[in-house]
Structures are given as C-alpha cells and as structure tokens.
Design a protein that fits this description.
rod-shaped; 80 residues
Length: 80
C-alpha cells in the first residue's frame, strides 16, 4: 500500500524541521509569503500590460479601417 497525501505532508514537515530547525521556520514562511505576494503582483502587472497592448492593437486596427473607408469614399468622389 502506498503513502497517502497526509503521510507525505507529515514526512515533509519533519524533514523541514530537521533541515531548517524550529527557529528558522517562521522566517522561511515569511519569505515564502513575500515571494507569493511578489509573484501575484508581477502576474497582475503583466496581465495589465498585455491587456493594454491588446487594446492598443484593436484601436490601431479600428483607425486603419476608418482610414481605408475614408480613402475609398474620397476615391469615389473623385471618380464622379
């Protein structure tokens, strides 16, 4: 029979305590929390930048379509 999830977690906790010591664990948890916060912040910033680029491209495409439409209308007027 294999190890379950809870057994693996207990083993990992014991290994961490033995490796880092009980006094270092709060510092380790703080560092992990800070890293998670920085990751979330960076992810949100990249998503915002990505959304801005997509919006700029959509605006650029829309303005090009309007320019083409106005060019076609001006050509039609000159042909008459």
């Amino acid at each position: 029979m294999g190890l379950g999830f809870s057994e693996i977690v207990v083993i990992l906790i014991v290994i961490v305590i033995l490796f880092f010591g009980a006094k270092k664990i709060p510092e380790l948890v703080k560092a992990i929390a800070r890293a998670g916060h920085e990751y979330k912040k960076a992810k949100e910033m990249l998503k915002k930048e990505s959304d801005d680029i997509i919006k700029e491209e959509a605006d650029k495409t829309e303005s090009e379509k309007q320019q083409q439409t106005s060019d076609i209308k001006s050509e039609e007027k000159t042909d008459k």
